[in-house]
Amino acid sequence: ADPGIFQKSLCILTTRRTNAPAAVRLVEHFWRKLGMQTTRMPADRHDALVALASHLPQLAVSALMAVQTPQSLAVAGRGLIDTTRLAGSDGELWAGILIDNADAVLAGIDRFGQTLAQLRRAIHRRDRTAIIRVFRAAQGARRALE
């Protein structure tokens, strides 16, 4: 076991007005003692954010691997290996997560689909500027993770 597994990780507390303030502070204190950063937000905001940051990556990677062929896997390099770790996740677990958060996940799929469609149109038109624009936006978002 890694004693620092929670260090600087984020714990999101989905609080309600009916929660006793002392109880919320106690739970927050517990997580902070484990080294976590905490934040509070309504459940619907949490669901929308994790749909984009957690559930959508899982879906994208699973779909990407589902279209691979034995021949494409035979020539795959580090890029495919490095970006598809999530595809090894348990489908039973993820089916429940996706169904429980279906509305937010579907909204995320729509946003992702729009970006893929934008890239498809740009590639079809051989529009380097539009392709680069999407890549630059992606690079900026990736830098924000670091």
Overall residue-averaged pLDDT value? 96
Shape: globular
Strand order of the largest sheet: 1-2
Q: Which class best fits the helix and strand makeup?
A: mainly alpha
- Taking Cα atoms only, what radius of gyration do you get, to the nearest Å? 19 Å
Give the strand content. 5-15%
Main beta-sheet annotation: 2 strands, parallel
CATH architecture of the largest domain, by name, is: Orthogonal Bundle
Low-confidence residue ranges? none
CATH topology of the largest domain: 6-phosphogluconate dehydrogenase C-terminal fold
CATH evolutionary superfamily of the largest domain: 6-phosphogluconate dehydrogenase C-terminal like domain
From N to C, what is the helix and strand string? EHEHHHHHH
Give a quick rundown of the structure.
The chain is mainly alpha-helical. Helix content is 68%, strand content 7%. The chain is globular.
What would you say this structure looks like, in words?
With 146 residues, the chain is mostly helical. The chain has two domains: 1-41, no CATH class; 43-145, 6-phosphogluconate dehydrogenase C-terminal like domain (6-phosphogluconate dehydrogenase C-terminal fold, Orthogonal Bundle), CATH 1.10.3660.10. Helix content is 68%, strand content 7%. The protein has seven helices and two strands. The protein has a two-stranded parallel sheet with strand order 1-2. Helix 1 (21-33) links the parallel strand 1 (10-14) and strand 2. The longest helix is centred in the middle third of the chain and has 24 residues, at 43-66. The two termini are 25 Å apart. The mean pLDDT is 96.
